Write the structure tokens for this entry.
Amino acid sequence: DIQMTQSPSSLSASVGDRVTITCQASQDISNYLNWYQQKPGKAPKLLIYDASNLETGVPSRFGGSGSGTDFTFTISSLQPEDIATYYCQQSDDLPFTFGPGTKVDIK
Amino acid sequence: VQLVESGGGLVQPGGSLRLSCAASGFTFSTSNMNWVRQAPGKGLEWVSYISNSSRTIYYADSVKGRFTIARDNAENSLYLQMNSLRAEDTAVYYCARDAATIGGGEFDLWGQGTLVAVSS
């Protein structure tokens, strides 16, 4: 199975700050990497697919980059409504696997 | 456009449960679908995938041989039959639409989830 790691596991930032989360795959997954946002008590929501493509309706402050084994997720200007846990997930090979998540809150 | 899960509840170890997911607002019959679960306080785990025609089905090793995914395109419904349930199957179960054009694994629409608790 492809193992996904994320760092940091949690972070606190101020409103307006730039936030960066990294995700690493245990083997080359090309660009088959998706990012999800999950708010407490809610279902996950797809934000970024294929490493860098913004899902329709998602604010442009969210972004993604990377290929191969190393990926980055960015919130360019953190907003209060962005408080959530963010997960990366690979869709290159079965079983589809998720990273452990990064919890983002406001400082 | 929504997915609504039902059928969760408390079941004893070794018991069975059948989850349902009702789809509306989109063309279910052309959509590939998945089940994804989340144990309390834990991360996300993909469980199973079914293609739009039911021709292709995949399972996570952790549920293979115990869970069965199925769909009824006439009823716009997805199902997960869960047998031989274990404590480690306790989780919120989400159905999720798959937007990937090749291979699967891009979950673009999720239901609200249904809680399955396995305990004596």
User: Anything to note?
Assistant: Chain B touches chain A through 23 residues (CB under 8 Å). The CA atoms of residues 1 and 36 of chain B lie 19 Å apart. Chain B has no helices and eleven strands.
